[in-house]
Amino acid sequence: MRKLVKNPGRTARYYRNNPEAREKHRATQREINKSPEKREYRAKLVKERRDRGIYGKGGGDVSHKGNRLVIESPKANRARGGRDRK
Questions:
Q1: Residues 77 and 61 sit within 8 Å (Cβ to Cβ)
Q2: Nearest-CA neighbor of 11 among 63, 85, 73?
Q3: Number of structural domains, the chain?
Q4: Angle, CA 75 vertex, CA 20 and CA 77 arms, to 5°
Q5: pLDDT of residue 16
Q6: Which distant-in-sequence residues (6+ apart) come within 8 Å of 11 by Cβ?
Q7: Residue 77 belongs to what domain range?
Q8: What angle (nearest 5°) sits at the alpha carbon of residue 32, between those of residues 46 and 36?
Q9: Of 1, 28, 59, 62, which has the maximum CB count within 10 A?
């Protein structure tokens, strides 16, 4: 099992406390992540991490900021938009 972070965000706290919702969310994400568009998107980011020499070493995410790729914290990258996104 994954190690739990000490200071989870709002969404992480919700899914920790609601196993049925967590499983529904995981099922939805599995479908989204196996689409050709998402595979291509992830491959591009992995290639960038390899080129920068940080692939497989932990650390920040490579994310899109405008038209460029930058390193930033995973929490900031994955929370962008947050609850106001929809």
A1: yes
A2: 85
A3: 1
A4: 110
A5: 93
A6: 79
A7: 10-84
A8: 60
A9: 62
Question: Rounded to an integer, what distance in angstroms lies between the CA atom of residue 71 and that of residue 69?
Answer: 7
CA 79 and chain centroid, separation: 8
The string of DSSP letters for the chain reads -PPPPSS--HHHHHHHH-HHHHHHHHHHHHHHHTSHHHHHHHHHHHHHHHHHT-TTS---EEEEETTEEEEE-HHHHHHTTGGG--
Backbone angles phi, psi at 72, to 5 degrees: -150, 170
> Is 0.90 surpassed by the pTM of this model?
no
| Contact (Cβ atoms closer than 8 angstroms) between residue 63 and residue 69 | yes
Report the alpha-carbon distance of residue 79 to residue 62 in Å, rounded: 14
Contacts of 14 (CB under 8 A, 6+ apart): 21
For the chain, the average pLDDT equals: 89
Percent of the chain at pLDDT above 70?
95
